[in-house]
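for the writeup, i need someone to sanity check this before i put it in the appendix. the sequnce is what the collaborator sent (i think, or maybe the updated version? ugh). structure was predicted straight from it, no edits. if anything looks off just tell me and ill rerun, i have time this weekend
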Amino acid sequence: MEHGNPGSFYSYELKSVHQKEIICPADISQETRLEIQDYALRMFHALGCRDMARVDFRQKEDGTIYFLEINPLPGLSPFYSVFPKQAEAAGIKTENIIELLIKNALARA
């Protein structure tokens, strides 16, 4: 949001310069991590997503988990996108993401 204005549009230009702290993997308990992974996978399959998606959650201080959104076409920029950082935390190198996407698509063809 431009200069803290919640009504501003989160444009491509603003995303590319927005400074944000990304803690990945999140500093959460193993139990919470497994619960969120279960929710994410169930939503991914229920919505018919393929290959990849970024599923966003928030957790209240009381531990309640809230689903925010699922993005079946997340950004892939290694400089400012979250998805490559998540993939690396899962053991997938950023440079291998596109390769995996192509292999998955070819397997369906």
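The first strand starts at residue 54 and ends at 59. The two ends are 41 Å apart (CA to CA).
thx in advance!!
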